[in-house]
Amino acid sequence: MKKQWKWYVYIIECKDGAYYTGLTWNIVNRIEQHVSRLGSKYTAKHGVKKLAYYEEHEDLEVARNRERQVKDWSQKKKRILISGEWKKDW
């Protein structure tokens, strides 16, 4: 039986309070890369405070679309998602 990949859309809170949104299939490894400053130029510059949020998807295209959607959001909207106060009808 073929293994089903899982995809993760995640938000990192940076040390300066900014948020970084990304997509990966191996969230543990990817966060370790960000912490060690190998993950992206953005997190290397701003530093990683913590993994603030993630969600799992079984379909890569759905995950890519969700990543694009969240990347376009304001910091305020991301904070609401992270807090768990997000309403589905927004």
| Count of alpha/pi helices | 4
Spans with pLDDT under 50 lasting ≥5 residues? none
In the CATH hierarchy, what is the superfamily?
GIY-YIG endonuclease
CATH class: Alpha Beta
In round numbers, the mean pLDDT is: 92
The class by helix and strand makeup works out as alpha+beta
Report the C-alpha radius of gyration, rounded.
13 Å
Strand content: 25-35%
Overall structural domain count: 1
Secondary-structure blueprint of this entry?
Layout: E1 7-14, E2 19-24, H1 27-35, H2 41-46, E3 48-57, H3 60-71, H4 75-83
Antiparallel strand pairs: 1-2, 1-3
Give a quick precis of the structure.
The protein is an alpha+beta fold and 90 residues long. The chain has helices at residues 27-35, 41-46, 60-71, 75-83; strands at 7-14, 19-24, 48-57.
Description:
The protein has four helices and three strands, in the order E-E-H-H-E-H-H. The protein is of the alpha+beta class and about 90 residues long. The protein has a single domain (about 5-85), classed as GIY-YIG endonuclease (3-Layer(aba) Sandwich), CATH 3.40.1440. Strands 2-1-3 form a three-stranded antiparallel beta sheet, with helices on both faces. It is globular and about 35 Å long.
Which key terms come to mind for this protein?
GIY-YIG endonuclease, 3 strands, alpha+beta, 90 residues, 40% helix, three-stranded antiparallel β-sheet
